[in-house]
Each structure stands twice: as C-alpha cells, then as structure tokens.
Amino acid sequence: MEQMQSRFNTMSDQIIGRIDEMGSRIDELESSIGELMAQAGINDDEAEEAAEARPADGRGRPGATPGLPAPPKASDPSPS
Description:
Layout lengths: L1 H39 L3 H10 L27
C-alpha cells in the first residue's frame, strides 16, 4: 500500500510539474503573439474583429490555405 501511495505521489508531482510548464509556455506564446501583433500594427480590437469575421472553424473561406489551390467544387469533373 505504501508503494502504491508513493507511486501515486510521484506521478501526481510529475503531472503538476508538466501542467505548470505548459502554463509557462502558454504565457510565453501569448507574449510572443502580442509582440508580433504590435510589430504588425494590429491592436486587440482589430484582431477580435478579424476573428469574429471568420467562420466557426476559424479557417476563413474554403480553400484559402496560403499557397494551396482551392478544392474542386462538387460540379467540377474530378481530375484524372
């Protein structure tokens, strides 16, 4: 029973440590995004407006992936 409790405590400490690390990484990412937005001259209001203009899936218009062609429409013949 003591061995099981010891393993549980060890695993619990590892999980908490990983969660803390992920929180720090998220904070760093948010800071970096803020810096990039500032460099690009985008303020928070503009970013929120752009996010609200996107569809729920967040991808913009279908086929709008930069550098990739739009997917064929259902009425287009399939390429051979």
